[in-house]
Amino acid sequence: MLVEQDQTLIRALQECMIATNHCLNECLAEDESNMMIDCIRLDRECMEFCSNLEQAIIRQSPYAKELAELCLKVCEACAQECQKHDHKHCQYCAEICLQCMEACKTYLKK
Amino acid sequence: MLVEQDQTLIRALQECMIATNHCLNECLAEDESNMMIDCIRLDRECMEFCSNLEQAIIRQSPYAKELAELCLKVCEACAQECQKHDHKHCQYCAEICLQCMEACKTYLKK
Amino acid sequence: MLVEQDQTLIRALQECMIATNHCLNECLAEDESNMMIDCIRLDRECMEFCSNLEQAIIRQSPYAKELAELCLKVCEACAQECQKHDHKHCQYCAEICLQCMEACKTYLKK
Amino acid sequence: MLVEQDQTLIRALQECMIATNHCLNECLAEDESNMMIDCIRLDRECMEFCSNLEQAIIRQSPYAKELAELCLKVCEACAQECQKHDHKHCQYCAEICLQCMEACKTYLKK
């Protein structure tokens, strides 16, 4: 029903939604959570755009690629912000966002 | 297309999504944002359930009433948490959540 | 909390979600519903992108404008398809999609 | 970050979203698509509730179980409708919906 490339991207998006939500929740609980505002906001953005793209791919939307380009951009911004922080959850989230970006790029090439 | 009661509930849900998101953003920026974690989390829950219910009503889902009962419960929890805090955005959010609860109750009676 | 232009676009998106969902439901019930497949699919796409954009505006997402550009494109495709059909619900849906496009354009200029 | 039971349910929900969307698209293309209206509508409901639940689990929402109860009910209705039709996509969709129901039940027991 869905081609392998779609399935691969869906898995990457799901990993990314889990990692960004985890990072968001952990950032909220950090002592200096005020310093984590940008990270929290970008985690939330990233999670929402991944969710929108997941749904578009499942619907086999003719606009999925355009949404994937936007999602890729949001993942990149989230990864860059997370990389600034030493917290384990931020470093992990950055890594998963980079993987999701790669999955978006592969999807866009097909 | 949508009956008046549906339109009324949709407007209440929309107000509630705007108020909870505003409260969430302002809580993140407060000095003692660690103390606002429960408020931030319930704002987010409330916004998501309002969004889910709005979509269900627009779809004319046969399960909209069951979702409205759950949304009502989430609005109530959010209102109760917000009422604990003196911040203007929390007090305002609590008020709007209470109005949304009333809109859900009216919808459930029809 | 939200500026007037955001509120105006939210109202237009909501109208558009209601109209596209109504058109989708009515198309399904038409005698020649096979001929309405493209209309049904674009109604669904349009409704989903309007919903995604509504949430992005409420979140005050830094990516709302880029999503608005994509939503505008989907509304245009939906309006063009609906205009091909004489059904009252298609003609009405086309009209509302055109209004939503205008609201997106105004929002993008700000 | 997410416990194994959450991950298992997320995979089941994803399978179910893919199957219901496939069934919906195929039903639209059937010769007698008018006879498939109930199936199309329930496919759409099922997909939306699975998506709502997936997001709630990823958020680690305190209301995820209540939403899982509702999702279980929608999956059941979709499975029952799909079972009435001989189309391969309907029979497959029914099977996947039943699996998703089991995943919801396991999740609710934890």
Automatic annotation (TrEMBL), chains A, B, C, D:
Top-level taxon of the source organism: Bacteria
CDD domains documented for this protein: DUF326 (cd08026)
One Pfam family hit: Csp
PANTHER family for the chain: CYTOPLASMIC PROTEIN, CYTOPLASMIC PROTEIN-RELATED
The name this protein goes by in its record: Four-helix bundle copper-binding protein
Organism: Niallia taxi
